[in-house]
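Q: Convert this sequence to structure tokens.
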Amino acid sequence: MPIVDAENEHFWRSGATGQLRILRCRACELWIHPPSPVCRRCRSRDVGPQEVTGAATVSRFTVNYHRWQSDLDVPFVIASVELDEQAGLLVTTNIVGCAPADVRCGMRVTVEFEQIEDVWLPVFSPEVKERVG
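A:
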């Protein structure tokens, strides 16, 4: 479980409302993740959480086969997904809702949340295409 503090609470508890929140610089509009109190582009301290769409693309991934805990189902996918809001805005996460063998780089995914106590872990599942007809 992550250690939740004032700097990252917006991220770990945003799933309570079903919307992923990422820090954004109010001066230059750069998205900032992992959380930082200072914008890396303009050095402003005027940063705050803002909702993102939750849409992303799998950038890179690995399939884990090691059972780190007795209640952990393996295999599972650990991935870096790039959020649509900004090139290079990466979140490390798990890919759920499909077989590990079906995950590929470039795959479109959307955020979901898995609640454990007072933390909502953002995980991503394959994007569902709208059916025509």
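Residues 9-126 form one domain.
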